[in-house]
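Re: that chain you flagged

S.,

Sorry for the slow reply, it's been a week of failed gels. I finally had a moment to sit down with the sequence you sent. For the record, here it is as I used it:
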Amino acid sequence: MAMAHDGTDEDNGKVKILNPHLAYLQEDVLYHLGMSNTTHDLPAMFGDIKFVCVGGSMWRMKAFADFLRGELGLPRDEESQRNLCEGTDRYAMYKVGPVLSISHGMGVPSISILLHELFKLLYHADSRNVLIFRIGTSGGIGLEAGTVVVSHAAVNHKFDAIFEQPILGHLVSRPTQLDQTFAQELLECSKGFAEDFPTILGDTLCTNDFYEGQGRLDGAVCKYTTAEKLNYLKHAYAAGVRNIEMESSVFAAMSNECGLRAAVVCITLLNRLEGDQINSSHAVLSDYQLRPQRLIAYYIKSKLNKAKFPKA
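Prediction finished late last night. Pasting the C-alpha cells below so you have them in one place:
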C-alpha cells in the first residue's frame, strides 16, 4: 500500500507528499511517466538521486544528460542513455549518476503534471535532500541576449510572488519565492564563467502563453499598441522582473509545498524592449542554451566533489 505524508512532521530531507488519499491506493500509477510503485523498483532505480534538472524539450534534456555525463566522467553506454519514460510519449527522462534530466513540455499545465508524478516518484524512491533546477529559455527585459538569469522569485502578471490555482471552484494562492541561499550559491558559481557570459539575479515573470500574455505584437491576435506593450514591460523592469517564461510559477509553488529546494536558471534569447521575434542563428541559439547547462553542471560537480572530499 502506498503511504502518504501529511506534512505534520520532519522527514530528514524526504520529499513531502501532501495527499492523505494516496495511503488508500494499492498501486500508485505515474501514468505520464510510464511507471508505478508496484511495476518498478523505484528505490533501486532512483533512491540515490540528489539533483533533478527539468527543462522544456525532450531533445534539450537529452543533450544536457549527455553533456553532464561527460562532465562527471561517467560512461556513455547504451543503458545510461536510455529514455526511462520510453513507455510514454509525454516526457523523456535520463539518469546520470545521482542526477535526473527530465523534459516537462511547454507551459504551466504540462510542467504541473510532470511535477506531481515526479515528486511522488522521488517520495516512493525514498530520495533525500534533493535539489531541483528548472533550466529554461526566456525573453529578457532590459538585458542583452545571452544573459543567464537566476530567479529570485516567480511572479504573476501583477508582479506578485504567488501562483493561483483554481481548485474545486476556488482560487488557491501559493507562494513562489525560490530558495535564496541556493540562488546565491549559483550566482557565486557563475563568477567562473564571467568572461563567457553575464549572469544576474532577478524576478521571473511567468505567463499563460507566448504571445498576448507576454505582450508580443506578432501574434494572430493583438489589440494593444506598441506604447502599451513597452509601458507594461518597463513597469515589470521597475518591479524587479528581468525575464519572462511560462513554467516558473507552478515550479516554485509546488517545490515549496513539497519541501524541495528549487532554482530557476534561464537564458535570455532576446531583449523584449527591442523586439518580439527570435531571429538569432541556430549556432548562436545553441550556444545560448548551453550557458545555463554549463553553470548547473559546474554547480552539481562542485557539490559532488565536496561530498566526496569534505574539508577536514
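What I noticed first: The first strand starts at residue 29 and ends at 30.

Talk soon,
D.
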